[in-house]
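Table S2 (text version). Query chain:
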Amino acid sequence: MKHASPPNFDQAAFRQALSQFATGVTVITTRAASGQLIGITASSFNSVSLDPPLVLWSLATRSASMPVFRANSHYVVNVLAASQLDLCQRFATVKGDRFEGVSHAEGDTGMPVLDGALAWFECHNRSRYDEGDHVIFVGEVERCGLHERAAEISPLVFQHGKFHGIKPL
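Corresponding structure-token output:
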């Protein structure tokens, strides 16, 4: 079996090339064994399979939330609308209780579903893969839903290091 060749670029060039790909923005939420609500912003979300219904996302191994996400049986992927940039920034940067003043409901497994999310996926933490400096989480979707006006609402998108909404072509 042939192995990969060493990269012919530096980390800055890699990051610049990756920034050309527009991604949706999510907040992944869960509940620690202590009851504390945990949430992080992630743009590394993708569908994997329709049968069974599987999705994936990744988290940096150095993340303070890693032990909780690795150990928990469930989490929720909340897809953000363009109007929810404040939530994106809160769950990416706020230290302390990121849920303070954030409206949410409890899903069937007790995990937080953010009010106003464009869509949400309540997942069983099916498998985890350590790859490079991240862990890839594969979730088996047990329940999902979408905003009642989802067809009219622009998603929050990240590209070129900036946030955007999108409009149909």
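Notes on Table S2: Helices lie at 11-18, 66-71, 85-93. The longest helix spans residues 85-93.
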